[in-house]
Write a structure and sequence with these properties.
This protein is of the alpha/beta class and 679 residues long. Helices cover 30% and strands 22% of the residues. It contains 20 helices and 32 strands. α2 packs across α3 and α5 packs across α6. The two termini are 43 Å apart.
Length: 679
């Protein structure tokens, strides 16, 4: 599974300076630890667990699980019998035991340059305890679900940790989702309380969050589920008193915000006079921690449920080792806390390690395309974690906006969210990191809790576009359609053979869906849903979702592989590939390409792109259609909506739900540019 020696050719190596104090300093050390983690997981994870606080110790087996549906119900259990509290471990332990009370937990950087603040671990603990007491005063108790619909502000972290402190289960909904999406998630998880904000700016666009939240609550009432309480943060508010009632302080906003005194309460008013001490609720290891919804093949989101102890250990360990966290680091993950990346690698992982992080509310291109690098220099960021989508977006503007800033503090670069194409990897490594910062290309999912395939920055020789090798405790395999394990170089279904502490425990309220989605197709394995290729050196390459595979004349092709080939052309900033029905081949490749600034689309370029794909993959992968796409339809989190592109490729106007689409104007332009001709 893991090669005896790392390859010496066609790879990029970490610099010597990083290796000196690294937690995993070389490939041999990685191999030793990896073998221990899979052969003796109880000892491996048990040693890590000693660094955390446990109110009571676990009894029996450290990790117990069944992945085989033919042998009964699927289950994963970690440290049964132990009790702890994650909030205590990420705050109280750091403040009182590790004496980090005065250390900055977050530098908050607002949408507008100059809009900033910082909060220390001691201050964060006080704020969390206060808000935990507020939640208890509202009747929230252990096991209750609380929906959180907020922008990227410190209070979002406070709200989620306050839930955890009292044993409530948070369900965070990305603040770009529609009222209908918020309503669906509230109904599914039966949340008793909604926490939101008046609004926020995304670039120069005002998002009236409270208006959307109120619409969602009305939809809940229409379906006979009235949410009795809504707490609203004054994020854009003017702090003045309005004497509508002698017993209550109301908020006045720059823009009118709806207010229902029977349901709505003001965050700041509720905090007045509240104690900043709150004893944590001690939770069992397998008690629910949070629910986070992710897309499902049925169109109905799945409520991924993570539990207390295993998740805490896994995200703390992956953060520490994958980013090689050191006490003087300043870490910045550009994700939104509304997604799993924000849960694991903005909140829980960094705080469990006592890290200082940047919390960013804005956009990478606002007010200009140098914003990210200005922030890196401003806070002397050492570890930087972002998405390939953002990298490709910034690539369009060339190196000059990056090189305006020195970025000398950077030590490790990371990518997350989708496989990164080699050209974007090279630009990130060479231009942003100036060939001195290793790139950790992390593969994982909402369901896995944390990284499962990833380089370690001082230990793993890197191949651009490869997620390299498994993290500790993770045992991947590649299966063919018949469920047979493939050895050596191969391509097929990526599965995992044994449990690790951070893997999800169930789909909330629907354990049968959990079993069917992840374990039924190949009994005995966790099925990731992704395709994967393993090369002659044992490196793993994610080829994309298996439902994004195309069958062209009996040959299975990965859309991600074609997109990568197109993206290597100097004229292409971004590409997306979908299928279009073909009377002979079954399916044909329909490619959307966004060109770099100043490049025009013409027949010569089209021919070059087809030749590039032929040369990179083979004649069978030659695109039948290549369409100029000035912009691609994306969600507000930056993910390409391939479902919509498939409809456009087939010239079908019924596009379905577009509530998560960031910019609806791109749709008509894509239809105007549509390739209508024959193959």
């Amino acid at each position: 599974m893991i090669p005896d020696k790392a390859p010496k050719e066609d790879v990029f190596h970490a610099g010597g300076a990083l290796k000196k104090n690294a937690h995993v300093p070389n490939f041999e050390n990685y191999k030793e630890l990896y073998l221990k983690s899979i052969e003796n997981p109880d000892e491996f994870w048990g040693d890590i667990a000693k660094d955390f606080y446990w109110k009571s110790k676990h009894t029996g087996q450290f990790l117990d699980y069944n992945f085989d549906v033919t042998k009964g119900e699927i289950y994963i259990k970690c440290m049964e019998g132990a009790t702890t509290n994650i909030c205590y471990n990420v705050l109280d332990r750091n403040v009182h035991e590790r004496k980090l009370g005065d250390k900055v937990a977050f530098y908050w950087e607002g949408n507008e340059p100059g809009d900033m603040m910082k909060v220390t671990y001691g201050e964060l603990l006080q704020q969390v305890c206060q808000f935990a007491n507020v939640l208890k005063s509202q009747g929230v108790k252990k096991g209750d679900r609380v929906s959180i619909y907020m922008p990227m502000v410190v209070e979002l972290v406070v709200a989620m940790l306050a839930c955890v402190r009292i044993g409530a289960v948070h369900s965070i909904v990305f603040a770009g989702f529609s009222a209908e999406s918020l309503c669906d998630r509230i109904l599914n998880s039966q949340c008793s309380l909604l926490i939101t904000a008046d609004g926020f700016y995304r670039g120069d666009k005002l998002i009236n969050l409270k208006v959307i939240a109120d619409d969602a609550l009305q939809k809940c009432r229409d379906q006979s589920f009235p949410v009795q309480r809504c707490i609203m943060l004054k994020h854009l508010a003017v702090n003045i008193q309005l004497s509508v009632s002698p017993s209550q302080i109301f908020c006045v906003w720059f823009r009118q915000v709806p207010w229902n005194p029977e349901v709505d309460q003001c965050w700041h008013s509720l905090l007045s006079g509240v104690s900043d001490e709150c004893e944590p609720e001690w939770c069992d290891s397998e008690d629910p921690l949070f629910i986070l919804y992710t897309s499902g093949s049925t169109g109905k989101p799945k409520g991924v449920l993570h539990t207390v102890s295993g998740y805490m250990l896994y995200v703390a360990t992956t953060f520490k080792l994958v980013f090689d966290y050191q006490p003087d680091d300043v870490y910045w993950c550009t994700a939104d806390i509304g997604w799993i990346t924000g849960h694991s690698y903005i909140t829980y992982g960094p705080l469990a390690n006592g890290a200082t992080s940047v919390l960013f509310e804005g956009l990478p291109t606002y007010p200009d395309v140098s914003r990210m690098w200005e922030i890196v220099d401003k806070y002397q960021v050492t570890k930087f974690y972002t998405a390939p989508t953002a990298i490709r977006l910034l690539m369009k503007y060339g190196s000059e906006p990056v090189q305006k800033y020195n970025r000398e503090s950077l030590k490790v670069l990371g990518t997350v969210g989708e496989p990164i194409n080699p050209e974007a990897w090279q630009w990130y490594y060479s231009v942003v990191g100036e060939k001195r910062c290793p790139v950790v290309d992390t593969f994982w999912q909402t369901e896995t809790g944390g990284h499962v395939l990833t380089p370690l920055p001082a230990a793993t020789p890197m191949k651009p576009g490869s997620a390299t090798f498994p993290f500790f405790g993770v045992v991947p395999a590649i299966l063919n359609e018949s469920g047979e394990e493939l050895e050596g170089p191969c391509e097929g279904y990526l599965v995992f053979k044994q449990a690790w502490p951070g893997v999800m425990r169930t789909v909330y309220g629907n354990h049968q869906r959990f079993e069917t989605t992840y374990f039924k197709k190949f009994p005995g394995y966790y099925v990731s849903g992704d395709g994967c290729r393993r090369d002659t050196d044992g490196y793993y390459w994610i080829t994309g979702r298996m439902d994004d595979m195309l069958n062209v004349s009996g040959h299975l092709l990965s859309t991600a592989e074609v997109e990568s080939a197109l993206g290597e052309h100097a004229a292409v900033a971004e590409a997306a590939v979908v299928s279009r029905l073909h009377p002979v081949k079954g399916e044909s490749l329909y490619c959307f390409v966004t060109l770099t600034d100043g490049v025009g689309f013409n027949r010569t370029l089209e021919a070059e792109l087809k030749k590039q794909v032929r040369e990179k993959i083979g004649a069978i992968a030659t695109p039948d259609f290549i369409q100029n796409a000035p912009s691609l339809p994306k969600t507000r989190s930056g993910k390409i909506m391939r479902r919509v592109l498939r409809k456009i490729a087939r010239n079908e106007r019924d596009l379905g739900d577009l509530s998560t689409l960031a910019d609806s104007s791109v749709i008509e332009q894509l239809f105007l540019n549509h390739c209508c001709g024959a193959v």
